[in-house]
Design goal:
471 residues; alpha+beta; Uridine Diphospho-n-acetylenolpyruvylglucosamine Reductase, domain 3; Alpha-Beta Plaits; GMP Synthetase, Chain A, domain 3; 3 domains; six-stranded antiparallel beta sheet; binds flavin-adenine dinucleotide
Length: 471
Amino acid sequence: MSSLIEELAAICGAEYVSDKMVDRLCHTRDAGPTPGGVPAVVVRPRTTAQVSEIVRAANRHATPIFVWGRSTTFIGHGIQTGCILLALDLMSQIVRMDFDNHAVTVETGAIWHAVDIELAKRGWELAVPGSGGMFVCTVGGSVAYNSVPHGLAGYGMTGDNVIALEVVLPNGDVIYTGSAGNRAAGGLAFERYANGPDIAGLFIGSCGVFGVITQVTYRIRRKPDAERFAFYAFDSSDVALDAAQALQRRQVPTHMVGLFGGPKPTGLTGEAFLHIVVRDTPAGADERVSAAHAICAGYNGVRQDEAATERYWVHHMYSWLRNTPPEVYYSDRPYTCPEAAAFMPTQNVKDALRYLKNYEVEHAAEFAQHGIRIKCYDVYFSRNAAFLWIDTLFPELDAAAWQYGLKMRADYSEHLFSQFASPGGILAPLAPHIMPKLGSGFDFLRVLKAQLDPNGILNPGVLLLGKGEAK
Ligand SMILES: Cc1cc2nc3c(=O)[nH]c(=O)nc-3n(C[C@H](O)[C@H](O)[C@H](O)COP(=O)(O)OP(=O)(O)OC[C@H]3O[C@@H](n4cnc5c(N)ncnc54)[C@H](O)[C@@H]3O)c2cc1C
């Protein structure tokens, strides 16, 4: 190991390599509840060439690499003891703002919202504002994880707006996707679907198992002139979901969040709630929000003060969905969640909610024993479907409650993925619940992994691919 550390220091500079226990301990896991192993060394490259050299060194030493954006996921990174921890936080520059081609190119470790702030100075914005973690998560990590962004209903998934990637493969080679792949033509990054197959797609959502993303070229747009908001309460989840589907059919929302469990918004009555955000030209936004009011009224929705929706959207602060300031909402600690989440057809959210409510009833005694709280059964609606996330909180200093929380996540995932649902981001703890269900699709990914990464160097085991023990 000491010769590997010397090689890493020669590549990056000794000050960017650490085998101090305090640094290694801080890089064992993400924000989720699954414990991870302690890396042997943490390395922080500043250039693509350094990433490439690190990957080649890892192959020579047969030592796995685990890739670290900002580790803001809530699942579990699957980090193995004795690995090289590749922290990409120093690769955070904006490389190019290309207003002619509606694109921005950033280094992988750029923080979503930091990029948006720079674009906003010119009247532009990223094609999605990022996930709820936009203030802390990286562009590359979010693309690799397939995070579900705000603006999902209007602007699509994080990956939909990727134009081109620069990627270091598991053997250290550097490739460019889409139009950027044509090196003879200057590697211009402006069109994803050029030069044959959509190679970028291979790296979107694959959580670093096929390559390290080092640069991302992402779509940008001029900031729209108008934003409008609507907030409705409904008598039942079923009716709220029917209203949401009607809104999807008319393409009304840019962003729409449904609240179907957990605490009700402060001061409100009702069984389910919809927050609707519309962004457009002033005339377009007025027309669409009028349609929102008409549709919600048609489903007996009761109009609420949309200031809560506006606060949530403008500040991107989750607590406002429940009409609650962050300092109140987040003050009752230390609790954490074994987050489970999945895409499903909008109508199947009804089935998922029935399952969750039954689970609460059937496990009432265990919930009481372990102090389990339902934080939310919330839905981000996409253009045509729904992304349900289930946050069941447990007291994280209680070891038995912790184990019970992990069991709940496993139960939820196994049930939903066996019925009508599929996860967005996967990561190691969820992989056993979904990868075997992919059948020959999983076989195909195994073949790819074996070909691209015969030594099992990059994020082994994270998608149940290339699993091996660290040395
Ligand atoms: C307050 C808060 C709210 C959140 N809200 C949401 C939400 O609304 N929707 C949602 O989906 N998520 C949400 N998240 C989770 C999280 O923000 C995102 O999923 C985030 O996009 C992950 O980015 P990261 O840089 O932290 O990646 P990491 O967690 O560091 O990495 C994620 C995965 O990608 C791999 N990886 C990282 N960088 C690279 C790279 N350059 N190349 C290859 N592989 C790489 C890692 O090894 C890991 O497997 C939230 C998090 C927080 C803290």
